[in-house]
Design a protein that fits this description.
The chain is mainly beta. The protein contains two helices and 38 strands. Strand 1 (3-4) and strand 2 (11-12) form a beta hairpin.
Length: 462
């Protein structure tokens, strides 16, 4: 005897573990006397009722929260003999607080044994489904159940709900991350561009249509079956993100013109595009950087290294500029000069126009100079720096990312590599007003040159 109930009208017994459908007999050993002296003799017994519901286990044979492009099979097992279970399933229409379920659908289980059934569900639409299973034991009055058949359904990964997804399509990828929506072509002027093949839409195929969040479609991983660019197989050269739905290819030295990209992919449900996803990658000629000039003396610089730094290539013979000067404290005398000769060519101590210097250019015209500047190379390349000597320095404004623009943050940080307070003066020249302008560190501009005075030597890291 474990305990005596309230009013001493009954007792609790501790017994060994029994099967859930057990109906043990309870036999009285000895006598029991009530408060009035009435006795109950030995040998009296009663057969206990089975009031324990069967415990059901429902598993999707393809795994937890399985995804299928066809039918899904569920295994139903019980810890005691059961009658044929009732199986219903519903589409989950959203995962928010206003979650609703679709119409009730029924599936017929197939008998495997007294404790095991199997059911195949052929859902009609793509989406997330919840399954509810109920069964009675042989006693008839005890019903066990598993899964959810009413909203809200908990769709978390550790939920007790029985869930599966039906997915019969693979979404086409976005190509080129700089454009919105599904793209089938894009142009770029970098022959060494990263080409991005983005299948992230695969993980939300039936989310938006059902008004839910990102939890309806949980199978967004994609396997690349084959990929080619311009007829060359690039499958093994693709690099995937951790989610397995965005792939990068680093092109190398693509020729100008069109390059056809073809991709065959397969999603987690086994859907594979019957014909290759196609896109056209167009490599265009990079627009030159236009160095703006005004009549007179111009203090200028170019933001990157030119394709050919020869002064007569950068400033061709048919350009009206007549004189180019630069100042470099590391060379004897500091000044380097080039004058236009009778044959149209520049001659003198200055023979190259590079990104590492600023220049005085004298011209009688508003005609600018178009300079071919390729994008900064990657790999075994060192990014540019500008050595600063103590005293006056004539410096350029460099653009490392190659867009010929300087953001506010880049301008503000341009001199951050120098010791604090070491730059005591920054000046540029206004050709139109023929006057010097003092500027703040954050206000420097691409295309201009600047005189700066530094109290300490250092290095500018653009």
């Amino acid at each position: 005897v474990q305990d005596v109930g309230e009013g001493r009208g009954y007792v609790f017994l501790t017994v060994s573990e029994m099967d859930p459908d057990a109906q043990p007999k309870v036999e009285l050993v000895g006598e029991v006397t009530d408060v009035a002296g009435n006795r109950k003799g030995t040998g009296s017994d009663n057969e206990a009722d089975d009031r324990v519901a069967p415990s059901l286990t429902v598993s999707v044979m393809e795994g937890d929260r399985a995804v299928t492009k066809d039918k899904v099979t569920l295994s139903i097992t019980s810890d005691e003999n059961i009658s044929a279970p009732s199986v219903t399933y519903f589409m989950v229409n959203s995962v928010d607080d206003d979650q609703t379920l679709g119409a009730e659908k029924r599936a017929t289980p197939v008998f495997k044994s007294a404790t095991e059934y199997e059911v195949t569900i052929d859902a009609a639409e793509d989406g997330l489904y919840t399954v509810h299973v109920a069964a009675h034991d042989n006693a008839g009055g005890n019903m066990g159940s598993k899964g959810d058949g009413s909203a809200p359904v908990d769709v978390d990964s550790d939920t007790s709900a029985v869930l599966f997804e039906r997915d019969t399509n693979i979404s086409p990828p976005d190509v080129d991350p700089d454009k919105d929506g599904v793209q089938d072509e894009f142009s770029i002027d970098d022959p060494n561009a990263f080409i991005r093949i983005d299948f992230s839409g695969e993980g939300s195929e039936y989310d938006a249509s059902k008004g839910g969040g990102d939890d309806l479609d949980t199978h967004g991983m994609v396997t690349i079956v084959s990929a080619s660019l311009g007829g060359e197989d690039i499958t093994d050269s693709l690099q995937s993100n951790d989610d397995g739905n965005v792939f990068l290819f680093r092109a190398t030295g693509l020729d100008l013109g069109d390059h056809d990209l073809e991709v065959v992919a397969m999603d987690e449900a086994g859907n594979k595009n019957s014909s290759a996803f196609e896109a056209t990658i167009t490599i265009t000629e990079r627009d030159p950087y236009t160095l703006k000039l005004n009549p007179g003396w111009n203090l200028v610089s170019i933001p990157g290294e030119p394709m050919d730094s020869d002064i007569n290539t950068v400033i061709p013979a048919d350009h009206p500029a007549t004189t180019v000067l630069t100042y470099d404290p590391s060379v004897p005398g500091g000044w380097l000069t080039a004058l236009r000769g009778a044959d149209g060519s520049f001659t003198g101590t200055l023979s190259n126009i590079t990104a590492g210097r600023a220049y005085w250019v004298q011209t009688p015209s508003f005609e600018g100079v178009d300079v071919d500047i390729p994008k900064q190379a990657v790999g075994a390349q060192i990014l540019p720096t500008i050595a600063i000597a103590q005293g006056w320095n004539l410096i350029p404004i460099l653009d490392v990312d190659g867009d010929f623009e300087l953001s506010d943050a880049e301008g503000y940080n341009y001199f951050s590599g120098l010791s604090e307070g070491s730059v005591t003066g920054i000046y540029t020249f206004n050709t139109i007003t023929n006057s010097w302008l003092s500027v703040a560190e954050a206000d420097v501009e691409i295309g201009k040159g600047y005189w700066i005075y530094a109290t300490d030597a250092g290095v500018i890291v653009p």
